Automatic annotation (TrEMBL):
It comes from Bacteroides mediterraneensis. It comes from the Bacteria. Transmembrane segments: none annotated. TPR repeats lie at residues 161-194, 229-262, 263-296. Keywords: Repeat, TPR repeat. This is Tetratricopeptide repeat protein. The keyword Repeat applies. Pfam families: ARM_TT21_C, TPR_19, TPR_8.
Amino acid sequence: MGLLSSLFGKNQSDENEQEKQDKKNFDILKYDGIRARNMGKLDYAIKCFEEAVALNDENETLGLLASAYLQANRTDDARITLDRLVAKDETNIQALLSLASVCFLQEDYDGMNNACQKAIAIDDKNAQAYYLAGKAAHGMKNGIQAIVMLTKALAQNESYTEAYLLRAEILWEMRQAKDALDDLEQVLKLNPEQEEALLLKATIHIQLGQTEEGEKCLDQVISLNPFHVKAYLLKGSLLTEEKKLDQALENYQEAIELIPQDAQLYQERGRVRLLMGDKDGATEDMKKAIELAPEKENLISGHFDNFEKNNLQTGIY
């Protein structure tokens, strides 16, 4: 009996010692991972979190690992980790919302919606859950459902600028211009420097024929962000349509000075030069556009060839 007691006691003692060592190793790996992440050493942080999770897949460390994967653009690994976390704890709202965001990156809108609906079932006052559900519905081409979800998000949080902006985008897709502009005004009240709201507002005004108001919005965007390519392109297109070719050319030249590596800016400046009769300048811009975006050579060349042909037919030259 004494011998058996000694043997079993030893085994139990060994197991206890191993548990203590595993816990110590887990703590070291977890907090080394956090320090590495904070220092920007992402690969080492991920390795630490992975080894920590192998010892103990507790929720916080799984969340840290998923977040690190996302920072490293390892979206599929983040999805697997969040699925694992949600399977362990189906009431973890933050994990469900993180999972929904990852599904959005993967364009898995069904999965995104499922995660959002589970979060809403747990907390029907969660504005972010409704907002993400709206994004999922929009991704599934269900505009009405998207508006319903975004409206519910705004009912929970009247200052939710992202929800106003997305609802405005969807309303404009439905060509509900007045309602879209109303939402954009709400965004700009909350944040007068919201560039995307100003850009969409400009687009709507231009489409409605209110070009002066549209140009004013574009000038605001460019003033806030002189590197906003879309704003220059839209302003240049507007000026070209209005036959203000000198101003359009000046707009593109200003943009190219600031953003010399954007192929589309050269392409559009070439289009204006062609309209102004500067065929050599247009050809030069076409070559530069192809040099910057060789994968779009056929598109750029076709654009210029068709444009030149149309100008000849209409007697511009």
